[in-house]
C-alpha cells in the first residue's frame, strides 16, 4: 500500500476539463501512484459508454503499471478485472464486497472515527477519510472534518492505511500527510488543470517535502 497510496488520482469524464485519456496519461507522467475510475453524478457516462471509457483508462494504467481501481460498481470492477474497488458507507456492505470482488485492493470511504473503527475489523486495504477540506466536486459531500481528524483516527489506535480526500490542493496537501495519512486522493486539482502533468508533479514534490 505504501507504494500505491501517496498520490491517488480519482476521475470520471464528468470531472475532466480536457480529454480524460489525455489527462490520465499526463497525470501518470507527472507521478500519480494510483488511479480510480469514478464515473458518477451529473454528466457521467452510463452503460456501454462507461465500460468503454473504463477499458480505455485501464489500458493506459496497465501500460505504466499503475493500479486501476473502480468506484462503487462491483459488476464493472469484476468485468474489467480491476486491481481494486472503492466503496462508500452506503454502497454494498463491505463483507459482501470482500466476498464478491475478484481483485485484490479494497478501499472504503470513512467519515467518522466510529466508521474507521468498523473498517479496521474487516480486511480492508485502505480507508479514504474525508472530506478533509470543502469540495465542490462531490455534490453530497459531508461536512469537512479537517486534517486533524486523521490524527484523531490515528490516536484511536487505528493503523489502517489512510488517504485523505476532499478539496486537497498543492496549497494544503502537506497538512494531510503531516496528520498521519499515507497519501492524498483528489480529483479536481488534476482533472480540472490545463497542465495535468505539472499539477501531478507539483503535488508529488510536496509529498516528498511533507
Ligand atoms: C469523492 C469524494 N469523497 C469525498 S470528497 C470527494 C470529492 C473530491 O474531489 P476534489 O479532490 O476535487 O475535492
Ligand atoms: C469517496 C471516496 C473516498 N476515498 C477514495 C479514495 N475514493 C472515493 N471515491
Ligand atoms: Mg460510493
From TrEMBL:
This protein's superkingdom?
Bacteria
Q: Name one GO molecular function term.
A: thiamine-phosphate diphosphorylase activity
Q: Which Gene3D superfamilies match?
A: Aldolase class I
Cofactor(s) required, per the database record:
Mg(2+)
Pathway recorded for this protein: Cofactor biosynthesis; thiamine diphosphate biosynthesis; thiamine phosphate from 4-amino-2-methyl-5-diphosphomethylpyrimidine and 4-methyl-5-(2-phosphoethyl)-thiazole: step 1/1
Q: What is the E.C. number? A: 2.5.1.3
- SUPFAM superfamilies from the xrefs? Thiamin phosphate synthase (SSF51391)
Q: Which UniProt keywords apply?
A: Magnesium, Metal-binding, Thiamine biosynthesis, Transferase
* GO-annotated cellular components: cytoplasm
Residues recorded as binding Mg(2+), renumbered to this chain, are: 72, 91
**Residues reported to bind 4-amino-2-methyl-5-(diphosphooxymethyl)pyrimidine:** 36-40, 71, 109, 138
Record note on cofactor:
Binds 1 Mg(2+) ion per subunit.
Q: Which Pfam families match?
A: TMP-TENI (PF02581)
A biological-process GO annotation: thiamine biosynthetic process
Signal peptide (UniProt feature, chain positions) = none
Annotated Thiamine phosphate synthase/TenI domain residues: 7-190
Give residues annotated as binding 2-[(2R,5Z)-2-carboxy-4-methylthiazol-5(2H)-ylidene]ethyl phosphate. Answer: 135-137, 167, 187-188
- Briefly state the protein's biological role: Condenses 4-methyl-5-(beta-hydroxyethyl)thiazole monophosphate (THZ-P) and 2-methyl-4-amino-5-hydroxymethyl pyrimidine pyrophosphate (HMP-PP) to form thiamine monophosphate (TMP).
Family (UniProt): Belongs to the thiamine-phosphate synthase family.
Q: What protein name does the entry list?
A: Thiamine-phosphate synthase
What organism, scientifically named, is this protein from? Pontibacillus litoralis JSM 072002
Amino acid at each position: 500500500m505504501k507504494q500505491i497510496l501517496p498520490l491517488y488520482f480519482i476521475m470520471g469524464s464528468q470531472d475532466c476539463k480536457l480529454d480524460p485519456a489525455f489527462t490520465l496519461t499526463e497525470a501518470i507522467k507527472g507521478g500519480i501512484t494510483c488511479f480510480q475510475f469514478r464515473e458518477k453524478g451529473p454528466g457521467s457516462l452510463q452503460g456501454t459508454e462507461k465500460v468503454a471509457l473504463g477499458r480505455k483508462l485501464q489500458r493506459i494504467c496497465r501500460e505504466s503499471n499503475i493500479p486501476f481501481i473502480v468506484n462503487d460498481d462491483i459488476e464493472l470492477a469484476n468485468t474489467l478485472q480491476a486491481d481494486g474497488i472503492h466503496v462508500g458507507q452506503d454502497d454494498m456492505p463491505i463483507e459482501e464486497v470482500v466476498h464478491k470482488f475478484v481483485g485484490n485492493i479494497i478501499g472504503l470511504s470513512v467519515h467518522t472515527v466510529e466508521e474507521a473503527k468498523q473498517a479496521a475489523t474487516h480486511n480492508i486495504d485502505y480507508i479514504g477519510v474525508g472530506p478533509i477540506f470543502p469540495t465542490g466536486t462531490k455534490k453530497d459531500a459531508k461536512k469537512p472534518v479537517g486534517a486533524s481528524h486523521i490524527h484523531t483516527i490515528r490516536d484511536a489506535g487505528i493503523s489502517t492505511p489512510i488517504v485523505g480526500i476532499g478539496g486537497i490542493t498543492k496549497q494544503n496537501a502537506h497538512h494531510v500527510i503531516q496528520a498521519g495519512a499515507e497519501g492524498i486522493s483528489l480529483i479536481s486539482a488534476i482533472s480540472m488543470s490545463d497542465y495535468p502533468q505539472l499539477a501531478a508533479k507539483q503535488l508529488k514534490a510536496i509529498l516528498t517535502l511533507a
